[in-house]
Every structure is written in structure tokens, then in C-alpha cells.
Design goal:
The protein is globular. Strands 1, 2, 5, 6 and 7 form a 5-stranded antiparallel beta sheet that branches. It starts with 8 loop residues before the first strand and ends in a 5-residue tail after the last strand. It has 122 residues and is α+β, with helices and mostly antiparallel strands.
């Protein structure tokens, strides 16, 4: 894995095959890892975007927003329960370990969302 020296926020999507039945992949999980440099996690009135801009986009930010929580909310609204999403089937929150902490290296903080694909489209 390459390391980055960039300060920023990152979203990484990975898949895992959980079960094979009759020589067919049947159960999949999608993992969305969202993380940022620790100095970028808090959103205030002087950051880009500002707390007010986040609120105007329809997301909850409080007085001091948390960039990771806001990005998790955005991703979840795009993926959770959508049918026929990009031809892969219905994605739902995993019943176990849906949201876990994810810190890929020192100086970064994040969360990992886990979704299950229940009806893979052929």
C-alpha cells in the first residue's frame, strides 16, 4: 500500500465475498472507509465547508461539525436501502458492525461503514 503525505479527507470502497453457493458468489459486503487527517475532522465557521454551508446542504452539523460523521451521513443516504444500485442489487446496513472506528495510520481518524448486498443482479 502506498502512503500519502497529503492532508485531506478520503473515501475508500472495498468489497468482500462472504459466501459461495453452487459455485456462485451469493453474499457480498461493501465496506466504505471514510477518514481524514485529524486536523481536518472538526468543521467550524472558518473551515471549508463551514458549518452553515453543511447545514444548507441538508446535513446536521451542530455548532461544531465532525467531517467524518457528516461524510458518513452523506454516504449512508446515497447507499442504504437503495434498490438496483448500479446494477448490484439492494444494499442494507450490515446487522453486525455497521459502523466501526477506522484509523489507517497515526494522525488520521475515521469510520468504516459495512453494507450487505442481498440480491445481486445478474
Amino acid at each position: 500500500m502506498e502512503t500519502t503525505k497529503d492532508v485531506g479527507a478520503f473515501v475508500i470502497v472495498e468489497t468482500a465475498i462472504e459466501d459461495i453457493r453452487q459455485n456462485m458468489f451469493t453474499d457480498f459486503n461493501i465496506y466504505v472507509s471514510i477518514f481524514a487527517s485529524k486536523e481536518l475532522v472538526r468543521i467550524t465557521d472558518s473551515t471549508v465547508p463551514t458549518v452553515e454551508q453543511v447545514k444548507n446542504m441538508g446535513y446536521i452539523a451542530g455548532t461544531y461539525g465532525n467531517r467524518i460523521d457528516i461524510l458518513c451521513d452523506i454516504v449512508d443516504k446515497q447507499l442504504n436501502g437503495k434498490e438496483s444500485l448500479l446494477g448490484i442489487g439492494t444494499l442494507t446496513c450490515s446487522p453486525k458492525d455497521f459502523c466501526t472506528l477506522y484509523c489507517p495510520k497515526d494522525g488520521y481518524y475515521g469510520k468504516r461503514l459495512k453494507y450487505t448486498i442481498t440480491n445481486l443482479h445478474e
